[in-house]
Design goal:
0% helix, single chain, globular, four-stranded antiparallel beta sheet, mainly beta, 36% strand
């Protein structure tokens, strides 16, 4: 996460300029902050590509990042922005209504093109604190926590209704970001968080 308007970016990248509120406009950690991505040379001596990514409010740290089989960069984070650059045909083009929502995005290897971007959440708050992982077909598994009573789940999910004030969630998005393959809540009667995950082949998630 960067709250700085002068981080180094490179020519032609998707978002060369900082877009978030200045930190002094609100409480630190609430207003201000964009995601920041940089690709370095193998010896660390040169920035090959660097871009901001975010809307007009706050984006947190990049909670998860993976490269797909083509080298595209898949990221997830929490956003308070209502104007994240979602793409046509994505699963959820608008935020769910809470103060913070999960988003997932895929950028080209040179960080010049946004291939797709979607929100993922309900009317409460979400954060993908467990990050993300890709399966063998580049489908995106996202792991996090939600306070939403209407977090998007799928009919055959392990749990479709929140069990406590905050549940963990596991959601699998199609490789093109256009829809859910499956999504489930996971947790007991108290607050639950998803902080560490892995995916192996065959397609199984270890929490």
């Amino acid at each position: 996460q960067s709250c700085a308007a002068k981080m180094p970016t490179t020519e032609g990248v998707f978002q060369p300029e900082y877009a978030g509120d200045e930190p002094n406009l609100g409480h630190g950690g609430v207003e201000g902050g964009d995601c920041y991505l940089a690709r370095l040379s193998p010896d660390g001596s040169k920035i090959l590509a660097a871009t901001y990514f975010g809307g007009s409010k706050q984006e947190r740290n990049v909670y998860g990042m993976e490269l797909d089989r083509a080298g595209n960069v898949v990221i997830t984070s929490m956003t308070r922005s209502r104007d994240i650059p979602t793409t046509e045909g994505c699963f959820q083009p608008k935020a769910g209504g809470g103060k913070g929502s999960t988003f997932v995005a895929k950028l080209s290897p040179d960080l010049r093109r946004l291939l797709w971007c979607t929100y993922l959440g309900g009317s409460g708050d979400e954060a993908p604190r467990g990050g993300l992982a890709l399966d063998g077909e580049d489908n995106v598994c996202v792991f996090g926590t939600t306070s939403s009573g209407d977090f998007p789940t799928t009919p055959s999910a392990h749990r479709t209704q929140r069990n406590g004030p905050r549940d963990a969630y596991v959601a699998k998005l199609k490789a093109d970001g256009s829809g859910l393959i499956w999504s489930t809540l996971f947790g007991g009667s108290a607050e639950d968080y998803m902080l560490g995950v892995d995916v192996v082949i065959p397609d199984m998630a270890y929490l």
